[in-house]
Automatic annotation (TrEMBL):
Domain of life from the UniProt record: Bacteria
One Pfam family from the record: HxlR
Molecular-function GO term, any one: DNA binding
Domain named HTH hxlR-type: residues: 23-121
The protein's name: DNA-binding transcriptional regulator, HxlR family
Record key words, sorted: DNA-binding, Transcription, Transcription regulation
Amino acid sequence: MQDGLLISDGDPAPVGDVFNKDCAGRVIVEHITGRWSALIIAALKPGPLRFSELRDKIDGVSEKMLSQKLRLLVRDGLIDRTVEPSVPPKVSYELSELGRGVSRPLDGLVRWIAANGHAVLAAQQRHDRGTG
C-alpha cells in the first residue's frame, strides 16, 4: 500500500504517476477536470454558495448533474457541505482546504482561456478550412 491507495486486485497503486493506467490518482484527475467539476470549483473560489446560486452561476448545468458532481467533490474532500438547522434546511457548499489548493491552478487555466480563447477558436477555424 502506498499513500493508502490500492487498485482493485490489492496491489499498490503507483500513486503520482497519472500516466500509468493503474494509477489511483487518475480517477482524481477525472473528477477535477470533468466538464462540470472544474466550473463548480471555479464558481466556489470566491466563497460559499447555496445549490440554487451554483445552478444559476453555472449556465447550462442541470440540477441532476450539479447534484451528482457536488456529491462526488464532497466525497473527494474538495468541497465542504454545510447544513444549517432551519426549516427548510439551508445547505451551502464551499471549497475545503484541498479544494482551495486545486482552485489556484484551475483559476490560472480559466484566466488563460479568457485571454487566449479567441486564438484557439481562430486555430479551429483555420484547421476546419484546411489552412492550418
